[in-house]
Design a protein that fits this description.
549 residues; two-stranded antiparallel sheet; globular; disordered N terminus
């Protein structure tokens, strides 16, 4: 396969000479328009690519001020000023980078891809550290070897790592390209006691993640789920202690399905849910129901604890089709406030427990902690925000659901990682009541109020200039601490996609502001990467392998 890369910026980002992870001292990077005759042929070819100008990235139109939760949220609201040196860009690796058997898959292509990302100025990569892979052989039996090999590969490439403690199943959600279930011994416990996983009103069990209702109960071979997660993270810390804080820059703590702090309210598996359905509450396992009954008794309304809302509809319905979520529905009553406070409070307590354990384990290692919050933007323009409510975010026209989350993260020094940074309102279907832009504004304001750093991701695969421009605009206004791009695959290395991505990384390095081209940069230069014979002046088999992903 042949690959053509066209880029607007130098592919060689300067290395930090003070960093202990690099073996060779970096050379000063010359201006992009100056020839360097003594450089190796391949290096000259890479630098020549810097002469190709990017397609212009138009700044998105400002979003009008909106009245949300009693405050005016301006489009420039954010969590602080952009970091000096710009916003570092990370790239998510394929979900099966370390496969079900614990080995690095497609290692040669991966090594080439890492070098290509480094040459584009990317800060690092993100990888899921699957519970179902590492602890597959039995309780407390950890196999870190595949991840150890990956860490060494990333170190050799001069990149850094965001590593996700993925305590959830892979498969059955948007973008899931492989199937990695929970550890077999955990699934044995699920078969013996199905109530340890989330359950909906119809009794359907969801094996993506262990129900938070049993966080503190010894349901996993004599250990509680929080103890199991803690033992896993402690073993990870001990195995990778020499890399934490340098090569491993960040630990993202998985807190639910897809690694996000939420309930699995919109599962795509078997067609259960379809966009833009409202989803369903996930509070019908016996442990959640026991907690609900206890809360109802404490509130003086024992009858409120027998079940979840009876009028909340089904996964694929719209808010106005239900008694609970319609304009002035049950959500706005005293009972609705009780239930939503309990349901969202349980989620907050779960996040607090697991992050408290992570904070204690990784304290002093130098690695940053983070947690991901889902960007549920459909039905945001309705009063009830139904899809957010079923996911566990008590966010309505009159109640801010994100500030409590931000404050909880701030207590543990964790970065708030938020999705859908690439989306614009005008690109969403009109019938779905979407507003990703207003949602991002609200989350930015919550992060600012709580004093927590805000980082971002794109929710869907995008390679177009509009999406990159939207992310860059948000980064500039919100002061993102980092942005993680979804995802590395063969499409990313396609010529036009790669050119736009490299230009985007340069824009982010400049703080999200568009940069002027050198005056001497008047034309495009093509960097051809493919099957070149020995008579050619240079070759780049690494990028050829990257294209084979």
């Amino acid at each position: 396969m042949a690959l053509t890369l066209r880029s607007s910026t130098s592919f060689l980002a300067p290395l930090d000479p003070s960093s202990s992870k690099f073996l060779h001292k970096p050379e000063d990077a010359p201006p992009s328009c100056v020839a360097v005759p003594q450089a190796p042929a391949r290096l000259r070819a890479l630098r020549a690519a810097a002469q190709a100008p990017p397609a212009p990235m138009e700044a998105p139109a400002p979003v009008p001020a909106e009245m949300l939760h009693g405050q005016v949220q301006q489009s420039h609201a954010g969590g602080g000023e952009p970091r000096r040196g710009g916003v570092p860009v990370y790239v998510m690796l394929p979900l099966d980078t370390v496969g079900p058997g614990g080995q690095v898959l497609r290692a040669r292509a991966l090594a080439a891809s890492l070098m290509a990302l480094r040459s584009a100025g990317v800060e690092g990569v993100m990888v899921d550290v699957w519970w179902g892979v590492v602890e597959r052989d039995g309780p407390g039996q950890y196999d870190w070897e595949g991840y150890a090999e990956l860490v060494r590969m990333v170190e050799r490439a001069g990149l850094r790592l965001q590593m996700v403690m993925s305590f959830h199943q892979c498969g059955g959600n948007v973008g899931d390209s492989c199937n990695i279930p929970l550890p077999p011994w955990v699934l044995e416990e699920v078969n013996a006691n199905p109530d340890i996983v989330y359950t909906d009103r119809s009794g359907r069990r969801n094996p993506e993640y262990i129900s938070l209702g049993c966080d503190t109960l010894p349901v996993l071979k004599g250990r509680t789920p929080v103890q199991v997660y803690s033992d896993y993270m402690r073993s990870f810390r001990d195995r990778f202690s020499e890399y934490l804080g340098n090569v491993i820059a960040e630990i993202q703590v998985g807190l639910g399905p897809c690694g996000e702090l939420r309930y699995p309210s919109y599962p795509e598996a078997n067609g259960t849910w379809r966009f833009p359905g409202i989803g369903e509450f996930q509070c019908y396992d016996k442990y959640m129901l026991a907690s609900l009954r206890s809360a109802a008794v404490a509130a003086g309304h024992e009858n409120w604890g027998t079940s979840g809302p009876h009028d909340a509809g089904e996964y694929k319905q719209f808010p106005e089709e239900t008694g609970f979520f319609r304009r002035d529905g049950t959500w706005s009553t005293e009972y609705g406030h009780f239930f939503l406070s309990w349901y969202s409070g349980m989620l907050l307590e779960h996040g607090d427990r697991v992050l408290a354990a992570a904070e204690a384990i990784f304290r002093g290692t130098g690695a940053t902690l983070s947690a991901k919050v889902a960007g549920i933007h459909w039905h945001y323009r309705t009063r009830s925000h139904a899809a957010e409510l079923t996911a566990g975010y008590y966010n309505t026209r009159h109640h801010d659901g994100y500030e409590p989350i931000a404050r909880m993260l701030a207590r543990h020094g964790a970065v708030l990682n938020f999705t859908c940074m690439e989306m614009k309102d005008e690109q969403q279907p009109g019938h779905a009541g979407c507003s990703p832009e207003l949602l991002v504004q609200q989350v930015r304001a919550a992060a600012r109020t709580a004093g927590v750093e805000l980082a971002g991701e794109n929710a869907l695969e995008r390679y177009d200039e509009q999406a990159f421009a939207q992310v860059a605009s948000t980064a500039a206004s919100a002061g993102l601490s980092a942005f993680t791009y979804l995802r590395m695959n063969r499409n990313l290395f396609d010529g036009d996609n790669w050119r736009r991505f490299v230009a985007f990384v340069k824009t982010m390095a400049d703080g999200g502001a568009r940069t002027a081209l050198p005056r001497c940069d008047t034309g495009h230069s093509d960097l051809y990467v493919g099957f070149l014979d020995a008579a050619k002046e240079w070759s780049a088999p690494e990028a050829e392998a990257a294209a084979a992903l």
